[in-house]
Amino acid sequence: MRKTSARGPGTAGGERVLILSAGVGSGHNSAAAAVQQACAERDDVAEVQVLDVLQVSSVLYRALLGKGYFVLVEGAPWLVEWGYDLSDPPFRRRGPIDPWTRVNALPVIAAIRQFRPTSIVCTHFLPAQLVASLLLRGVIDARTAVVTTDYDFQGLWLPGVFHALFVAREEARVELMALGLPPDRVAATGIPIAEQLDAAPSRNAGEPPMLLISAGASGGDYAVSVVRQTMHMRSPFTATVVCGRNDVLRQRMERLVAPAGDRYSVLGFTAEMPQLLRCADLFVGKPGGLSASECMAAGLPMVLVNPIPGQEVRNGDYLMEQGAAVRCNTAATIGWKIDQVLREPGRLQRMQAAARRTGRPDAAADVLTGLLEGPSRPLVVTRAAQKTILGASEQRLVASDLKGPSSLVRLVDSAAGSTVAVLQAEEVGELQNRYGTPDGELVLRRGQAPVSLRWEARRLLRAMLRGDDALPVRVEGLSAPPHVVTG
User: Fold this and answer.
1) Hey, which bits of 382-446 come out as E strands?
2) Distance in angstroms (rounded) separating the CA atoms of residues 32 and 14
3) Do residues 344 and 350 make contact, with C-beta atoms less than 8 angstroms apart?
4) What mean pLDDT value characterizes the chain?
5) Residue 59, Cβ neighbours under 10 Å: how many?
6) Are residues 212 and 300 in contact, defined by beta-carbon separation less than 8 angstroms?
7) Could you tell me which residue ranges the Glycosyl transferase family domain spans (predicted)?
8) Is 194:33 a contact under the CB 8 Å cutoff?
9) Nearest residue to 122 via CA among 197, 218, 29
10) What one-character-per-residue DSSP string does 190-217 give?
11) Buried residues in 130-168 as b, exposed as e (16+ CB within 10 A)
12) What's the pLDDT tens digit per position in 378-428?
């Protein structure tokens, strides 16, 4: 998938925004489309392109990463959960990109070079890791953002070089600061979703509650079982069942609910989901990051069914913590569970209010503002600092609490005030010996880096300096404990 749009000849000098996604499920591409939509609202964006990196990869690579994931979800969900937990520690993978991924990344690199972006937004961890490598190698000189698409932060998303990292909720931001990342590089914006309708259509207070059942996302047999159980509910209700592009499932649903008359409406793929979200009173389906974010922005509470182990289970935990969702762990009790919500006086209204508080409808615009108006130099996390962060995580310690030579410090651009590097304390000594001035200042210099400087250090220096020959920096310890940091 490659989509390009331009603002016209009058904006020739504006930003060229490249949005990189990966079609593993629909959420990452939906977030990319939302950011593209937000670009159209900014006068400083001249051109924007969306690229699904899997679509330009080999058929085998695309099948293994895309279809293979959902095969595991259906046949071995325990393996999906194991893989999620295994890849959760930050910087578990610190080495170069493996050869197979590098080969499949060549068309992506070619597309990046051809488009010549001034800014890159990644809505999947695969392109985020690739872009970090390109920054270090000097292949690109663009602002880069990583945008997570689930409520819980997974360490796999954390690259060694980036300009801005956007997470879904404040707790994830606090977690990243506890790892040692600076607050000026991490923002809790929410998950980018398409522009919402201005207002919900008015509903007659005497009408029964409307359920919106996302059957296509829940899978065939499971979705049929869910809908069958709603037919046993005692509470008055109407229901719209959305089956997506699954025509076989839609036909099964139509046959199933035919005896219920006009209580149920069965739809296939529809472009009217924003309207349906606004009309409904309760959503029944899986807690994917984008689906959940759209529901929250619409003030629509959720009944969670059949979550994918790992990210969707954690999404559900967050929504239930906010009071905006309930979870049903078996289809056999789904009707009873919904009845409980509808029959308890005021409960549905409280859940709707919680959903509205949780929603972040402006996330896409906030991501663009944070990136385009943020620091121009990237943040570099050195390999040594990555090792410290990973080691602390594996020992269930907080990296920002560590003391001694392996503790973390930051280099701050003296002029701009933005953090440009996170490194081990013992690395500062080498920098001061090489770049310290007689009056005690620290000025990184391109021409002062002799051949003896390690290859990795030269790459880091190039990333921090960008086009400059020198960069005055100051060394700072980590800020106050994350729990006292706000905003």
Assistant:
1) 408-413, 419-424, 442-445
2) 20
3) no
4) 87
5) 7
6) yes
7) 240-357
8) yes
9) 29
10) ----PPPPSSPPP--TTSPPEEEEEHHH
11) bbbbbbbeeebebbbbbbbbbbbbbbbbbbbbbbbbbbb
12) 999 999 999 999 999 888 888 888 888 889 999 999 999 999 999 999 888
Q: Residue 12: what pLDDT? A: 54
| pTM of the full structure | 0.90
What sign has the CA pseudo-torsion 298, 51, 376, 179?
positive
Note whether 330 and 271 are within 8 A (CB).
no
Residue 193 neighbours by CB under 8 Å, 6+ apart: 30, 31, 34, 290, 293, 294, 297, 361, 363, 364
Say how far apart CA 367 and CA 373 lie, in whole Å. Answer: 10
Residues 486 and 158 sit within 8 Å (Cβ to Cβ) = no
> CA 459 to CA 295: how far, in whole Å?
43
Q: Which amino acid is at 332?
A: A
The CA-CA-CA angle for residues 233, 239, 242, to 5°, reads 130
User: Which domains does the chain carry?
Assistant: 2-195+363-375 (3.40.50.2000), 210-358 (3.40.50.2000), 380-484 (no CATH)
Q: Are 282 and 300 in contact (CB under 8 A)?
A: yes
Residue 204, amino acid: N
Question: Is the separation of the CB atoms in 105 and 2 below 8 Å?
Answer: no
